Amino acid sequence: MQAFGSPDQGPLEPGFVASRIEAYGGRRAPQPWADGSLQPRGGVPQEPGRRRLQDLVLFNKSPGQSRGLSPLRLRELEHDRKHGHLYGTGPPPSPKSKEVSRVEQLQARLHTFSMFGIPRLPPEDRRRWEIGEGRDGGLAESSWKELVPGHETMSRELCHQQEALWELISTEFIYVKKLKVMTDLLAAGLLNLQRVGLLMEVPAEILFGNVPDLIRVHRSFWEEVLGPVLEETRESGQPMDPLSLQDGFLSFGERFLPYVHYCLQVKRTMEFARHQQEHNYLFQTFVKWCEKHKLSGRQQLGDLLIKPQQRVTKYPLLLRAVFKRSPDPRQREALGAMISAVESFLHHINAQVRRGEEQDNLAAAAQRIGPYDVLEPSSEEVEKKLRPFSVLDLTTPMTGITPHCTRQLLMEGAVRMKEGREGKLDVYLFLFSDALLVTKRQRKTDRAKVIRPPLMLERLVCQSLRDPSTGLHP
């Protein structure tokens, strides 16, 4: 496919603009006659649209009269000023008109993509985003039975095992093709539009994250693990052996490490994509065009973004299906070890995601809690000395606990405390995993100010209530 050139590839050839004006403008530049005048003598009629030189230049009507423009030209300038046609004097384009222009430009680009294909990006962008890399037309076989000529004589249990293995391999290939939709269609289209100044507010790095890393992971997994199983069966005609998958799945955590980063960011990614689709008409138009493209198979952007998380959690189910249909003890032992390795990696991902959510919740709570006034300063010097100790940093590690254990916000709620003998004080409590904060909520805001020293958790006694509404709530 021939790449489309950028509008800024280089200067135009000499005479290009003039030739276009001559072809489409309807006006030719006046050619000077032999005597230097711009029209022949004798009052030859002018061509339509051509003005006389004396109507365009300054002249002296009489020796005592000041210089001025021709009355005819004055009327024309007055008309141009009235209608905003004079160069540089019309009203500036409104933001709405600029937006309409951007929409029209986007629609024109998308129409060009539909007619001639998405332009080819530079090699460095293609390698970075895995655009067009490792493309394959599809599996040569539609069923495992095409690989095993003697499947008619196989036992029913062995046939079910081969069916489960084929589901593992064939769904892997289908999934990688869906990943390629995000790079070959969505990312390629977005990057091309950004090269002409469109959708600059939608960074591809935020929208697609490390999808190219996932593609590299699965390409390696296919070439080193799943692909050789197919090739061996094609050559021998014997049923696929689950033992051939053992080395690949036992190193699952190392191979699929980029999934940790993707699963940590997928929630923010989907929120960003949803916000852009709801509030950015240009992005909405682009996504709709992509969803109707033949490469996408009418898959929606949200469905594509959640696919990696769904796929990585599906591997234990696929392996268990093979395990249940494998009567051989050696195969069952190997498959059990594979399932344990994959589940261990998934537990690691879940722990990282949970920790990230806890840190987000803690950061949100810290934003709501203001500084802690230890003492009432008596002077500016005292206030300056106290200021570093008035900041309550809830994101610091807890004392006496390993650093990987982060502070969590367990519960919060409003209570009424006794103040003196008869006084009462309405306060708002934050119960963290290591301390209890007593705060006072500020009016008309969601912020709170610490009014008591933090109470460490080992000095507290917490009791669960039958009616949760009478105490703190999670």
TrEMBL record:
Residues 160-352 form the DH domain. InterPro entries: DBL_dom_sf (IPR035899), DH_dom (IPR000219), PH-like_dom_sf (IPR011993), PLEKHG6 (IPR042918). GO terms for molecular function: GTPase activator activity; guanyl-nucleotide exchange factor activity. CDD domains: RhoGEF. Pfam families: RhoGEF (PF00621). Residues 1-70 are annotated as: Disordered. This is DH domain-containing protein.
